[in-house]
Structures are given as C-alpha cells and as structure tokens.
Amino acid sequence: MPSPTIPPLIQLNKISTSSKGILYGISGLVSYEGGTPDARELVQSNRSILGILQYGVVPSRKEIGLQPCPHIFMPQIGSDYIVEIWSSPGSVHYDQKGMIRAASDGNVLFGSYEEAVTEGEPLELVSERSYREILAYCHQAGYDHLFRLWNYFPRINEEQGGLERYKRFCVGRYQAFSSQYQNLQQVVPSASAVGTNSGSFLVIFLAGKIPGRHIENPSQMSAYHYPRVYGPKSPSFSRATIGQISPEESSLFVAGTASILGHQTQHVNDPENQTKETLANIQRVINQAVSVAGVRRKRRDFSGLLKVYVRHEAHVSLVQKSIGKSWAADMPTIFLLGELCRKELLVEIEGVWAFPPNPAVGSNLE
Question: In terms of DSSP bridges, do strands 145-154 and 190-196 run parallel, antiparallel, or are they unpaired?
Fold first, then answer.
C-alpha cells in the first residue's frame, strides 16, 4: 500500500473559500480559518465572536475591544496563516475584570487571563493567583463548570529555584482548585500546558452552566494520581471533558495528549512512534467518551479538529507522516512549535469533537 501524500508542513484541507477568507474546519463553537488573519476585521464583522486565538512569534494585534483575542507566542508551521475562531450562534456579551477578558452567550463562557510576570516571581504564585481569579469570575458570572483550560507560558522546562517551572505551575494550580473543592477529580476539566517562545502567562478557559462529564483513559494513570516524581503536586486535569455548548450540541474536549502509558513516557527520542502512541491514546479516550454518551454513530462521523504541538521543527514532517497514515489523516490540523511539559516528550496532540447534547453529564468515568 503506497504511503499517503502529505501536504508540506501543515495538513489543512479547504472546506470553502470566499471573499471573506478560507474555512479549513469547524467543530461546534470553534473553526480554523485563513485568508483574513486580522482579528480587528473579524471582530468588526457581523459574527458573534466569543474569542480569537492567533499564533506566531510576532504580535498579531493591538487592543481591539473586550473580546478575548490573545496572541500565543508560538510559531505556526505551514504556508497558510490560520486563525482559531470561537463563535456563537446567538448574541454575545463581553466583559473585562482585572486580567480577565470574557465573552458569554447564555450557554458558555469563553475567556482569557493574561499577566505579564515579574522576572523571578515564583510561578506557583502566578498560577494560583490566576486560577483563583478565573474560578471566582466563572462563579460570579454563573458559569461554574469548567470544560477546558489552555495554559501557555515561556520557559516551561526551565528550573526556577531548583524546581522546573511546569512543576511550580502545577503546585499553584492545585492550590487554587483545592481551596475551592474537596474532590478535585470531580471538577478538574481537560487541559494542556505548553511552553511559548516569549510573552505573558496566559490561561484560556471555557466554562458552562451545566456540569460536564470528565473522561479518563483506561491505559493511563489519571494525571491527578501521578506519583511525586513528577512534582510536589500532581497535574490537576482530566483526559477529556464532554461539555454542553448549546441545548442542541455538546463537544468533546480532549486534553493535551502524549506518548504516555500508565504514568511513564514511551518511545523516548522517537517522534514517529510517540505520535502513533499519542493517537492511540486519543482513540482510547474517544472510545470511552462514546461509551459514556451512549452514541451509536461511528467515530468517523464526528466532526473534529486537531492541534499538534511539536518540540523540534525537524520532527514536523515525521509527525505529520505518522498522522497521515492514521485514522486522523483527514482531520483539519494545525501544527505549532512549542515546549512540552516533560523534556522527553516530542509531540503533544489535543482536539475537539462535536457530540450529542448532554450525554450523561455530571460525573466522572474512571
């Protein structure tokens, strides 16, 4: 069987093209779009924008209003410049409080917390402060249930006072969650933490009014149960969350996933097999979610989007080749260069899939 043809550096098939730009993929609230990368132009359109995420080493915007439009200082690999747009079918209300910018539509709240960190300040203090403010804001706004969190900050693997910055981040995140909740595994949503080239400490969050369903991977130890070798406090996140984004639709938010079985990294120094193992883990999580939801449709019928973080640019083509030979070959996929939470990890993949509404929400699947 001949190897599939892989487009250079980025795998994005155009769904439609118009004078407004190019639509590469859409799943639930989020779409990948190109051809009109200016956030100001998007915000001034008639669309109900919840948020706009732009990637690259050069800042892509000035202040454009209250909408969450963070710039993630992470190189985007590919010939087309792609913008990640979160939008709502209904009207959107915008708000700003302190470091938080947020947008809500009555079903979900999409927001960002961005803080310029003082050099030398322990990162656990920054992460605890940010998470306490996010939790308080979501509660006051009436969106108590977190569905997804994205964490971006520079020098994630660098040591600070003898402890890796990612591990310090995990300490602060844990302190914030544990100050509000007694049983963390019932509330912590899917999440990712990726190192950027530069920029501020940034947390992007999505929350809803109805409890989500948090999913675990039977082949992995739950992150919140990791042994102390991974830091003073275990990472506080679930492998995926099913969240209801409207009365008619839910989404499956798969956390940043890597080549880990149990709690141990697999295929060290092997980007191709790390990618294969990562995709197998995502498949296991999807199968668990489908089982929880009682969905009868086949997995390939779900519309989804992938985001791939690669540590080294030299590995992008190998990672893309592995994806191109897999079940995810036809999925719209953005490739980004970023540092990952373990130094030996070379690739991390996350995704979002459309799901039926309100599938057995409210508790975890272990």
Answer: parallel
* Token pair belonging to 349: 């993949």
Partners of 108 in the β-ladder: 208
Provide the mean pLDDT of the chain: 87
The sheet with strand 190-196 has its strands ordered as 93-97, 100-104, 108-115, 201-208, 145-154, 190-196
pLDDT of amino acid 80: 77
Q: What is the pLDDT of residues 289-336, one digit of tens each?
A: 988 877 655 544 467 999 999 999 999 999 999 999 999 999 999 999
Max Cα separation, the chain? Answer: 57
| Rounded-to-integer distance, Cα 244 and Cα 130, Å | 25
pLDDT digits (tens, 9 = 90+) for 204-235: 999 999 999 999 999 999 999 999 999 999 99
Task: Using alpha carbons, select from 258, 321, 207, 161 the residue that is nearest to residue 266.
Answer: 258
What is the C-alpha to C-alpha distance for residues 271 and 292, in angstroms, rounded to an integer? Answer: 32
Which residues touch 302 (CB under 8 Å, ≥6 apart)? Answer: 252, 286, 353, 354, 355
Using alpha carbons only, what angle is made at residue 237 by residues 54 and 349, rounded to the nearest 5 degrees? Answer: 45
C-alpha to C-alpha distances, 86 to 54, 110, 204, 209, nearest whole angstrom: 11, 8, 12, 18
∠ CA 311-317-322, nearest 5°, is 95
Query: CA 136, CA 132: separation in Å to the nearest integer?
Result: 6
Q: List the Cα angle 225/361/332 in 5-degree steps.
A: 80
Cβ 231 vs Cβ 339: under 8 Å:
no
pLDDT at 60: 59
Separation CA 132–CA 48 (nearest Å): 28
Residue 104 has, within 13 A of its CA and on its CB side, a CA count of 19
With contact defined as beta carbons under 8 Å apart, do 94 and 67 qualify? yes
Beta strands in 186-239 (DSSP E): 190-196, 201-208, 213-215
**Which of 144, 86, 82 minimizes the C-alpha distance to 333?**
82
CA 51 to CA 205: how far, in whole Å? 11
